[in-house]
Design a protein that fits this description.
The protein is α/β, with parallel strands linked by helices. It is built from three helices and three strands.
């Protein structure tokens, strides 16, 4: 209870990430998904309790750069929650 799965897929269609999300949903685990290219299959698996951060690009390099910035922001937020 209280677990979160962070799924990262440039295309939104990575089979291993899709399967992980499907399994997590069955266990009632909330999802934070980082995708690009419209979100792909992953976008269809998420609901209002999940967080979907989709980079608005079809270019792999641009999507991954966006994911890197988002991951740094998430880590900074966790640091503040745990250390402040």
């Amino acid at each position: 209870k209280g677990d979160i799965l962070l799924g990262i897929s440039t295309s939104g269609n990575s089979k291993n990430v899709v399967k992980a999300i499907e399994s997590a949903k069955k266990m009632g685990i909330k999802i934070i998904a980082l995708t690009g290219n419209g979100g792909g299959k992953i976008a269809t698996l998420l609901d209002e309790d999940d967080i979907h951060l989709c980079a608005p690009s079809t270019r792999t390099a641009r999507i991954q750069e966006t994911h890197l910035v988002l991951l740094h922001a998430l880590c900074d937020g966790v640091d503040h929650l745990l250390l402040d």
